[in-house]
């Protein structure tokens, strides 16, 4: 009985790793196109208004918007928030708010 949960967990972990790898590949591809490869930190000065950061964010958002897979989109959100210069506290707040909204949607769909 417990083995089933372990298998599901392992499968989800592998699936997440795959999506994360795909999202990272998309970001790396974009960084190489804009010439931002090297430091690994596009937002060096934590300034979301810098030219390099703006180009990076533009590319990430474009890839995000055309990505059909919601799991890949979810993996990309961390990069978007980082490129926007969000603090760890803000990121945690966003994640909490998303979870609240997700729970509300689940409760609404439970009525049907």
Mean pLDDT: 76
| Low confidence ranges | 36-45
Helix content: over 70%
Give the H and E element order: HHHH
Tally the helices: 4
Tally of strands = 0
Indicate the overall shape: globular
Main sheet properties: none
List keywords for this structure.
112 residues, mainly alpha
Characterise this structure.
It is built from four helices and no strands. The chain has helices spanning 2-34, 51-66, 70-83, 88-109. It is globular. The chain starts with a helix and ends with a helix. The model is unreliable at 36-45 (pLDDT under 50).
In short:
The protein is mainly alpha-helical and 112 residues long.
Topology diagram in text:
Layout: H1 2-34, H2 51-66, H3 70-83, H4 88-109
Helix pairs in contact: 1-2, 1-3, 2-3
């Amino acid at each position: 009985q417990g083995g089933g949960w372990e298998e599901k967990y392992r499968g989800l972990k592998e699936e997440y790793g795959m999506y994360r790898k795909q999202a990272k590949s998309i970001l790396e591809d974009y960084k190489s196109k804009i010439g931002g490869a090297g430091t690994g930190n596009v937002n060096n000065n934590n300034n979301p208004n810098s030219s390099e950061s703006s180009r990076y964010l533009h590319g990430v958002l474009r890839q995000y918007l055309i990505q059909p897979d919601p799991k890949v989109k979810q993996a990309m959100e961390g990069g978007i928030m980082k490129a926007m210069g969000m603090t760890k506290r803000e990121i945690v707040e966003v994640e909490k708010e998303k979870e609240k909204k997700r729970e509300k949607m689940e409760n609404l769909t439970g009525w049907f």
